[in-house]
Each structure stands twice: as C-alpha cells, then as structure tokens.
Amino acid sequence: MSLTTPVRNAGFEHMLHMLRAQNAAKIDVVAPATTLRARGGAIELSGVEPVVDGHGVTLVDGLYVPTTTADATIATKLGIGSKYLRFMRTERPDLFDANVNGLLHGKYKRTAEGTTRVIYPADSRSFLLRLFRGQDGEPGVLRALLSDRFGMVDNLDLLTAVLDGIRQADVQVEIRSCDLTDSSMHCKVYSPAVERLAPHLLAGYRNPFADPVLEADRQRVTTDLDVGRRLAAAEGLGYEPGSEPVVFAGFRFSNSEVGSGSVTLKPELYVQICRNGLTLPALSFRKVHLGQRMEGGTVSWSQDTVKKQLDVIAAQARDHVREWLSPAFLARQVAKLEEQAGAPVTEPQAAVQVLGRELGFTEAEREGVLRHFIAGAQPTAAGIAHAITSYSQTVADPARADALDDLALRAMALAR
Length: 416
Fold this sequence. Notes:
There is one protein chain. By secondary structure, the protein is of the alpha+beta class. The chain is 42% helix and 25% strand. It has 13 helices and 18 strands. The protein has helices at 12-25, 68-78, 82-91, 93-105, 155-169, 212-221, 225-233, 303-324, 327-341, 348-359, 363-376, 381-391, 398-414; strands spanning 7-10, 26-32, 36-39, 42-45, 51-53, 56-58, 62-66, 107-110, 116-120, 126-132, 140-147, 174-180, 185-197, 246-255, 263-271, 276-279, 285-287, 297-298. The strands form four sheets. Strands 1, 12, 13, 14, 15, 16 and 17 form a seven-stranded antiparallel sheet that branches. A seven-stranded mixed sheet has the order 3-4-7-11-10-2-18. The radius of gyration is 24 Å and the shape is globular.
C-alpha cells in the first residue's frame, strides 16, 4: 500500500502501522522559493542541505510529485486557482511549469548594455516543504508547501498524546474507527461503560444498513478488511427484540499535518446500533497550527518545544475526556436532544430538500440522506439526524463525512 493511499474505517492497529511507515519516510525542510522549480508537473528541489537523521544521510535535492493536497497548498501560496492548477498539472504540465516557475523565479530581461532588468522580481519567501522520501529510485512525494511559521503536530505524536490523556483520565474507551488521507487523520472513540437510554431519540429507529444496498455502500468505502468483517457481523440487523435504545458517550479527534485543518477534539453521542456518531461541534477544542518562524534548512524542532505542544494537547484531552465521557455530561446532552427528537416529519422528500439547501448539501448528498431516512423508518426530526450520520459512513472523503456529522443535530433542530 502506498504511503498516500487513503484508509477509511480502519482499525487502530492498521492506523498505527500506516503512521509508523509514514513517519519513517518523512522529510521536512525550509527552503527559499528560488530552490524550487516545476518540471514536468512535479517540483524539483536544488541546493537544499541533505538530511541527517536516524536513517542516515538523505539527499533532499530531487523530484517530488505533488499530492492533491499539495496542489491546493501551492495554489494558495502562489495565488493561482486550485482547480486550474490541478488541471494544468494533470493535463497540461507545460503550463503548470510555466505558471509555477514564473511566479517563483520572476522575469528578467537583458538590456542592450548587457545589464539585467527586473520585470517581475523572484519570490523572496521561504516555505516549509513536507515530503516523503522516494522509494526504490522513484520520485518522492510533495505533501504540502506551507508557511515557514506552520506549527507541526504530526499524526503519530497527536495520537500518542491523546492516548496519554485518556490514560491520565482513567476512563475505559475503545477506538471504534480511524481514517487517514493525504490531508488529515480522524479517530473516533467511545466508552462502553458510559451509556444512557434515549427512548425518543431512537424511538422506532431501524438500522438502515440492514438494507444490503446501503451496507454495500458502506463496505465500498471501507478499506480495512478486518473492520469490514466486523461491520458486517456486529448487530447487522439492529437490536434484538426487547433490547434498549442506548447511546454511549464518545468523542473524536482529528489533525492535519499539511495545513488542511487544526488539532480538533469534539464530543459525540455514539449510537451502536448502526455506528452513527452525533457530534457536538459547539463544545469542541481546536488548536491552530502556528509556530515561530523557522530557519532555512532541515526542520528539527527542539525536543523541548515539541514536548510542550504535546503536553498541552495531552492535558486538554485528559480534561475533556473526564468531562465528555462522564455519566453526568451524557445525561445532560441526551435530555436536551430528547426534547427535540420526536417532532414529526410528514413530508420527508420536501424536508430533506429544504434542509439540504440550508446546510449546503450536494444533490447526491440530499438523495443519499433521503434513502437513509426511509430505510431508518423513523419519521421524526431524530430520524433526519440519524439519516445524515448513517449516510456519512458511505462517504469516501473522511473530512466531508466529519462535516456532515457536525450538521446532523443542527438539521434535527431545523426539522422541528
């Protein structure tokens, strides 16, 4: 599996393996704009100091192929439309090279007197380049072109810090699923020991994934086979007759190593019957990646600086886990939602259309939510929320799936 292959609904061990492999291949350098040159739709580095680390001496100079995320960061830094830049790199690499090189290196003209006249000056900035080493003689990977003030918090370090915070909080948890793309990491956690009856929130709700078509949609985006088998086996037809409508206290955390987001922790209510997660984004903790300006050359922050950042994250995780995974917090949140949950939705197609426009859903998302609403057989405002969070499990992009989950309770309030 490639280091940039996206992973959806992965187990913890799979995620850990991927993060360790990525960490072993990482190179981070701060380099002047003039050391970068576009060539054949890739970025070539020249004149950058070699990296000396636990892997030995690695030459940084060479060719690096941008990821889709890197395309967006190049576009942002150079003031080019991202769709246009991505099109040029894949369809017209000659124009990609001309645009990128012109903006990085400027334009000069020799005069009749033999002097050089500056028409457009070269870019005077330095950038942080996040890279993966090339494998087996292949070009490397450009993950992102970022500000030299970007405060790096790597995914593996964040995962370790959050787990340390959970350990300090002394709360029993399970990591239920993880996602990893070239732009972000998302992990979902819940406590099987902290549960609450939610009779109105789950009144009459059926697991939509009992529909084999919808379950196939979820399996289609699940790239971890072990998780796929567990999804198929665990409560495939919902609760047995007489089982109680229960939600669990949980939270999720995310990070981007490449400027596509911040460190974020937010609470959620986990509905085990279909793995829905109703997030509470208004209560989230967010830390923007911003640090001190870095000097040119290979990036190697002091261990003290890194430790201080991670200690803050671990402390925040500890405090939030103690609050969010407590019976009292879960009881308060369920009580609020129970008041809104039972409002009837008599015209689901019209309701989903209106909500979709209000919340910015695409046409495909509106159709998907409607299918899940019908399959869930819960004609209430709560059914709308559940339809969004079950549909999100079939969305390939974890960041968009996370955004949809954030909108579910807002949709429930609007549907009243």
